[in-house]
Write a structure and sequence with these properties.
Distance between the termini: 57 Å
Order of helices and strands: EEEHHEHEEEHEHEHEHEHHHHHHH
CATH architecture: Alpha-Beta Barrel
Strand order of the largest sheet: 3-4-5-8-9-10-11
Number of domains: 1
Structural class: alpha/beta
CATH class: Alpha Beta
Length: about 350
């Protein structure tokens, strides 16, 4: 199965990644208790062998434990075969969090991630959430230094507004922007996607299968365990209304002889060659199914039909109940106002 996933050039600075990545968060945190480490290392190895070499983590996942897990999985000469994306910027836990873009914090976070991952450099380093108190130019200035020092190869943003993306890109080229994007989470299409394409920035959709809802519908919501953050997600609290979206996707998937998850993921892949989704999983079967989505072909008519299933009035609830103050509609202060304070 080696080489089953093609490579894509991400952004315009030279980073090449697998056309589909692997979100590693759920292996260690946020979707219930951490999964057994040996099993998750085997899963990561299976992903790499299958051609999924773009691994996504963060210092917030755990916190810290997911980076340690990914680092352990890369022992034995696998480092050179993968592209590691990690993030900084969120402090605390899901009960009480803060976002920090202070230069000293940027540097200390990078050094700590390098140590936990046990690597010499980070391929793609994201600002996980945008600090609305610190100008993005200040945060980017420190990231630019880390690139110049060879500790970071490429820089990315997560959940940033179009104007923030422009301001950041003017300080140092942004290689990728990560946002939630799926059939039922499409709020980045009006401004963020066009901005990224204008600037030559790659687009990384997280939760491309609707946090699992577009794969199994109400069944996912019914089986959520303690510690799973989806329990507080507004859309998972409106299952009776939202199940219609899944049912329609599933019916079309049956017609196309694929799974609902594959169909939903294929829709994301069809958004462009500058789009690299990072579906997460802790199961071998799901990983293989996700890779299979790359083979699902959709006509323009089928794409339109899929989009009609999950129109804005068909989906009830905000896309995320967490970190709302740092979503894509918030800005950082100007440099002049920050200096004058």
């Amino acid at each position: 199965m080696a080489g089953a996933v093609p490579k894509l050039k991400l952004g315009s600075q030279g980073l090449v990644v697998s056309a589909q990545g692997l979100g590693c968060m759920g292996m260690s945190a946020n979707y219930g208790p951490p999964k057994p480490e040996p099993d998750m290392i085997k899963l990561i190895h299976h992903a790499i062998e299958s051609g999924v070499t773009f691994l996504d983590t963060s210092d917030f996942y755990g916190p810290h434990t997911n980076e340690i897990l990914v680092g352990k999985a890369l022992k034995g000469g696998l480092r050179d075969k993968v592209q590691i994306a990690t993030k900084f910027g969120i402090q605390g836990n899901y009960g009480k969090v803060e976002v920090c873009g202070d230069p000293a914090y940027v540097r200390s976070s990078c050094e700590a991630s390098l140590k936990r991952l046990d690597i010499d450099y980070i391929d793609l380093y994201y600002i996980h959430r945008i600090d609305t108190r610190v100008p993005i130019k200040v945060t980017m200035g420190e990231l630019k230094k880390l690139v110049e020092e060879g500790k970071v190869k490429y820089v990315g943003l997560s959940e940033a507004s179009a104007s923030t993306i422009r301001l950041a890109h003017a300080v140092h080229p942004i290689t990728a922007v990560q946002n939630e994007w799926s059939l039922w989470s499409r709020d980045i299409e009006d401004e963020i996607v066009p901005t990224c394409r204008e600037l030559g920035i790659g687009i990384i959709p997280y939760s491309p299968i609707g946090r699992g809802f577009l794969a199994a519908g109400p069944k996912v919501a019914e089986n959520l365990i303690d510690g799973d953050i989806r329990k507080t997600n507004p859309r998972f609290q409106n299952v009776e209304h939202n199940k219609t979206v899944f049912e329609r996707v599933n019916e079309m998937a049956t017609r196309k002889e694929c799974t609902a998850a594959q169909l939903s993921l294929a829709w994301v892949h069809h958004q462009g060659t500058d789009v690299v989704p990072i579906p997460g999983t802790t199961k071998f079967e799901n990983l293989d199914q996700n890779i299979g989505a790359l083979s699902v072909k959709l006509t323009s008519e089928e794409l339109a039909e899929l989009e009609s299933f999950a129109s804005s009035d068909a989906v009830k609830g905000e896309r995320n109940g967490f970190m709302q103050l740092t979503w894509i509609h918030y800005e950082t202060p100007s440099l002049s106002s920050w200096i004058s304070e």
